[in-house]
Write a structure and sequence with these properties.
Layout lengths: L5 H4 L22 E8 L2 H14 L5 E5 L1 H9 L4 E2 L2 E2 L10 E8 L3 H15 L2 E2 L2 H9 L9
Antiparallel strand pairs: 1-5, 1-6, 2-5, 3-4
Length: 145
Amino acid sequence: LRDADLDLVADAEGITGMISQVTLRVMRLTGIQTLALAVYDAYAFQLLLQALIDRRLPIWSMSFINPKMAEMKNEAPLREHHGHPVEQRIILPKAYILTLAFRDADATAVQSAIPGIAAATGAEILSDEIARHEWDGRFKLMTIK
């Protein structure tokens, strides 16, 4: 769309059409492994993502948080039940943290490639504890907002 045609859809906020069909692709139930990487600036984060894309690794899910989000997670109160914490405090580095999830069957391919990618991009491989914590909390973003 160009020029005057843009006026038809500008500021329409998604109301220019109706969704008539949706296709969901569902992965068969399988074991999932996780891995987390940290980099300390946006350019290094871009290099890390590009390296993962270029290698075409069989990664099922990628999610990330920025340094501010990591800092806020560190400062957020722990969830409690009857006044007692129901989770362990995990201290995250103040960094761009990328959490990867991949099928058990793809673990060798992913895990063997990550050290080289991390070295080439200046990324730090984080502990399994951090990786699992971030994966388990992937749907709980609003707890710190």
